[in-house]
Design a protein that fits this description.
single chain, alpha/beta, TIM Barrel, 5-stranded parallel beta sheet, 3-stranded parallel beta sheet, 11 helices, DNA-binding
Length: 297
DNA sequence: ACCAGTCAAGGAAGC
DNA sequence: GCTTCCTTGACTGGT
């Protein structure tokens, strides 16, 4: 079974190998030179942690890794707006990225990302679209620097998050999609959601975004459970499976009770219905949960 | 060393 | 039109 780790290794975190972040409030409270210095050091640390985590996955039989979307805090902030290569320590960062690229290229590990849930290509506000485009381009730039395939083998997975009239929302989505670089467009996939009004089920994503525009649909079993539309789990799984021109990368999680709060560990294994798929394991136990699943297969 | 509070994002809902 | 909630993990400041 091809299981993938999402962002954080609990085992490495326990050994002190952890991501760092910085808030804008803190950044602005410090003298500028000191603020930039701290930020640059944290970003470099985050790339080192990323590389360590990928090596850790390879060593433990984990077949995929979802990059954290918090590797580069603040760079897209409206009052900062920097790209990686504008950082004073970019050379050190590029060296770490190159080393990571080598690790990925010489091993069997699939890399993906799930940019923040706050990204929206459907908003009516230009400011929100601008921020979202920048954030997606930042992800794609990191993917390109890591020399990842510029196609769905390294997907950038987001939601269509707004509720309302599907025609209106999807047409806004597609006109903003056209603004994105090829690095983003070639990798962008859409995941089913379970918003209150229940608009973006697997079926609807398939009918609108896949049939009309060829965008693959990521199947998430927990979102499907909360918003099945008219489909059984297997029907939704198969429909999403049919949208991928390469091996799909789906999401697996379990809620606590009947909620969407993620449980620590799996009680069952993800059902692949006999198909070849990767599963991003969205359980709070992270790699500890995956070890258990790999043992019980 | 530890703990409680803070921070950041976009959308939805309620007043 | 404002506030609050949702979510998450790490930072921050006080003990």
């Amino acid at each position: 079974m091809k299981l993938a780790l999402c962002c954080i290794s609990n085992e490495l975190a326990e050994r002190g190998i952890k991501f760092q972040t910085m808030t804008y409030a803190r950044f602005s409270a410090l003298p500028h030179i000191q603020a930039m210095d701290t930020l640059c050091n944290r970003i470099l640390n985050n790339f080192k942690v990323t590389h360590e985590t990928i090596k850790h996955c390879i060593a433990t039989g984990i077949k995929g890794y979802r990059l954290s979307s918090s590797i580069t805090p603040l760079l897209n902030h409206p009052d900062i707006r920097m790209t990686l290569d504008q950082l004073p320590n970019f050379n050190a960062i590029a060296d770490e990225i190159d080393a990571t690229a080598n690790t990925i290229a010489s091993n069997d590990i699939r890399i993906s990302a799930h940019p923040s849930e706050y990204i929206s290509l459907t908003s009516k506000e230009d400011r929100v679209i601008d921020n979202s485009v920048l954030d997606l381009e930042m992800h794609a730039m990191i993917f390109d620097l890591l020399q990842l395939p510029c196609d769905y083998r390294s997907p950038l997975n987001i939601h269509c998050r707004q509720d309302g009239d599907p025609e209106e929302i999807s047409s806004r989505f597609m006109s903003n999609f056209a603004r994105l670089s090829k690095s983003v467009r070639n990798r962008l996939v859409l995941e089913n959601n379970d918003n209150a009004k229940g608009v973006w089920s697997v079926k609807r994503l398939h009918d609108i975004f896949h049939m009309r525009h060829g965008i693959p649909v990521t199947f998430d079993n927990l979102h499907h459970k909360m918003l099945p539309g008219d489909l059984s789990e297997q029907e939704a799984f198969e429909l999403a499976y049919s949208t991928w021109p390469t091996t799909p990368l789906f999401h697996y999680s379990e809620g606590i009770g009947n909620t969407r709060n993620h449980a620590d560990f799996a009680t069952t294994l993800p059902n692949s219905y006999g198909r070849n798929v990767y599963h991003d394991v969205e359980l709070k136990g992270k790699d500890w949960a995956i070890y258990e699943m790999l043992r019980s297969k």
